[in-house]
Write a structure and sequence with these properties.
mainly alpha; globular; 2 domains; 4-stranded mixed β-sheet; 387 residues
Length: 387
């Protein structure tokens, strides 16, 4: 006989617990490191009916009945932000990728050209002494590109370059696309899923969402203050003077706060009707004339779209006003920060540790840094080395 309670239990025990929200994933901050370089592949989770807590009544609290035993046996490791039944699989996959990359990094004459590129890229990423010796020199080419910009008309191609250099302009979240200025992606049309159309999304923020900038409670104010201090340290590590770094951090905070105020809140974004704003390319040009959309689309080699979905027209109206009102030097400062911030996980130890201290530890509560292999895998996954 079909028993819906048993079916739901199967779902709860087999789907990663993270889907049930923060309390489902977070148990404690104790536990062993999960991805040390010499660690074996983690044990994979499998469905086990014994995981239910028979001492509790499923009718009183089905969540506790289903999850209590697993949560008690699986504290969050100190180098992770959350832990779920799918986390071991993710780390197992990381381990398999690491072994493959390490195997291809050996100087084997039988390697194919692609294997050689991947292996050499991996070896360079794992060359900690070389990375440390280079310091922030790898940033210089990008910072120089920004420094020579002479007019706001040149901003568009630099935005496209940053979107290509740091992939993520197509990775949407509940709140925004976490990329400089705005996000750009292709997706099924809301009204006709047989069509893939372009979507332009609100973005531009370094912090996870607009609330970090505009909330006035004590914790939010303190977090924004810490973010400003972090940004100033990062500018100093990028070889700015302390005084200039302080000025630049203030400029970025001002711009990002203004963009945050203009963003649609995440509750409104949950209603597809609010983000399904169809526009022609001509209408988008009129919405934000400071961005040369034809040049941007050409730089990204974006195909022609039947129409464009602009998730938040009000955001783009406000961003256009900001682009007009703020001088070019402010936007150059903002883009310098974007380059420094998004490069930080792959640079020298001082940059990595400062980036971890704020974004992983202060914001997310992670107690220890993860082994850097994950960063190398991310870098390779997001690269263009096999294009």
């Amino acid at each position: 006989m079909f028993n819906p309670r048993v079916t739901l239990c199967l779902v709860l025990l087999t789907v990663p617990l993270a889907v049930f929200g923060q309390n489902a994933a977070i148990t404690s901050t104790s536990g062993a490191s999960t991805n040390a370089p010499d660690a074996p592949a983690p044990k994979l989770e499998h469905f086990d009916p014994n995981l239910v807590d028979q001492s509790l009544s499923a009718c009183d609290d089905f969540y506790k009945y289903s999850c209590n035993k697993w949560l008690a046996a699986n504290p969050i490791p100190p180098d992770q932000v959350f832990w779920s039944t799918g986390s071991s699989l993710e780390l197992w996959n990381d381990n398999a990728l690491r072994e493959t990359l390490e195997a291809n990094s050996k100087n084997d004459p039988k390697r194919s050209p692609v294997q050689q590129k991947i292996g050499d890229y991996w070896a360079a990423c794992m060359d900690e002494s070389g990375i440390e010796a280079a310091g922030v020199k790898p940033l210089q080419l990008e910072l120089d590109r920004i420094a020579v910009l002479k007019s706001k008309k040149e901003l568009t191609l630099e935005i496209a370059h940053i979107h290509h250099l740091f992939p993520g302009a197509w990775e949407q979240s509940d709140n925004q696309t976490n990329s400089a200025f705005f996000g750009f992606t292709g997706q099924p049309d809301y009204d006709d899923s047989s069509k893939v159309v372009a979507q332009i999304d609100q973005g531009g923020l370094s912090l996870p969402n607009r609330d970090y900038y505009i909330n006035t409670d004590d914790k939010s104010v303190e977090t924004l203050k810490k973010f400003r201090a972090h940004m100033q340290k990062m500018f100093v590590l990028a070889e700015e003077t302390e005084a200039q770094a302080g000025i630049d951090a203030g400029t970025v905070i001002e711009l990002e706060t203004a963009m945050a105020k203009a963003q649609m809140d995440n509750v409104k974004r949950r209603d597809p009707k609010n983000v399904n704003n169809k526009m022609s390319l001509a209408q988008i040009r009129a919405l934000t004339p400071s961005i040369e959309w034809d040049a941007y689309l050409k730089a990204l080699k974006a195909p022609t779209s039947d129409h464009y979905i602009v998730t938040s027209p009000d955001f783009f109206r406000a961003e256009e006003k900001l682009l007009v009102e703020h001088p070019l030097e402010h936007w150059k400062t903002y883009m310098r920060w974007q380059v420094i911030h998004r490069s930080a996980p792959y640079l020298n130890k001082a940059m990595v540790e400062e980036n971890f201290a704020f974004f992983a530890h202060t914001l997310a509560g992670q107690e220890q840094q993860s082994f850097a292999v994950g960063n190398c895998e991310d870098l390779i996954a997001n690269s263009r080395i096999i294009d």
